[in-house]
Amino acid sequence: MRKNYDYQKIKNEVGNLVKKACYSEDNKFGEDAWDYHILIVAKRSLVLGKKLKADLEVLELAALLHDYASIVDYKFFKEHHIHGAQLAEEILLDLNCPREKTEHIKECILNHRGSRERNHKSVESEILASADAMSHFSELADMFYLTYGVHKLKTKEGAIWLKNKLEKSWNKIMPEGRKLVQEDYDIAMKILDQAINGIK
Ligand SMILES: [Fe+2]
Ligand SMILES: [Fe+2]
Questions:
Q1: What is the pTM of this model?
Q2: How much distance in Å is there from the Cα of 190 to the middle of ligand 2?
Q3: Mean pLDDT value across residues 67-80
């Protein structure tokens, strides 16, 4: 069946829009948000989506847009899942993305945050939340930057803070996702435990 919308076009336009926002001077998270977060989350979402036979179009667009609100305006950060879902609706309908797909993408964005109570209604929503948490393990260097570069914590207090954060992320990842980052998790915990407790 021929689609009545051009997925590649929508994806390219959305990707360009988010990339441009990441590279804008107004983005408080810095341009690395594109390479070290958005693209990683999109990649992981697709890997999990293929394994679990999910809707890859929904996943890819939801991953690209999931943090868009706080990238375009930091004042949205606290509620960026809600603002992000609203912005996604405007952007996607404007690009002729079908209403049903747009609603599904909104649901994923609304439920992507681990710190909030999540109400997954679809496997795609669950996958996006997992991929978001998994990005903390696949880009550990960026997490060290956050701990010591951004938050300016001292060595031990930073290790304690980061370990706690990574453990929370781990608990949010679905079993299929844990398999993909198990090795990274073990390495991270070993390094952080050594910083906290010293070498045995
Ligand atoms: Fe987010
Ligand atoms: Fe995110």
A1: 0.91
A2: 25
A3: 94
pLDDT tens readout for residues 20-33: 999 999 998 888 89
CA angle 24, 28, 30 (to 5 degrees): 65
Q: At 156, which amino acid appears?
A: K
End-to-end CA distance of the chain: 62
Give mean pLDDT, residues 146-156.
92
Q: Is 1 exposed, middle or buried (0-12, 13-18, 19+ CB in 10 A)?
A: exposed
Residue 1 Cα to ligand 2 midpoint, Å, equals: 34
- 3-state secondary structure at position 12: helix
Residue 197 Cα, ligand 2 centroid: separation in angstroms?
30
Q: How far is the CA of 1 from the centre of ligand 1 (A)?
A: 35
Smallest-distance ligand from the CA of 82: 1
What lies within 8 Å, CB to CB, of 48 at 6+ separation is 54, 127, 130, 131, 174, 176, 177, 180
Look at the chain and count its residues: 200
pLDDT band of residue 99 (cuts 50, 70, 90) is very high
- Express each pLDDT in 137-147 by its tens digit: 988 898 998 89
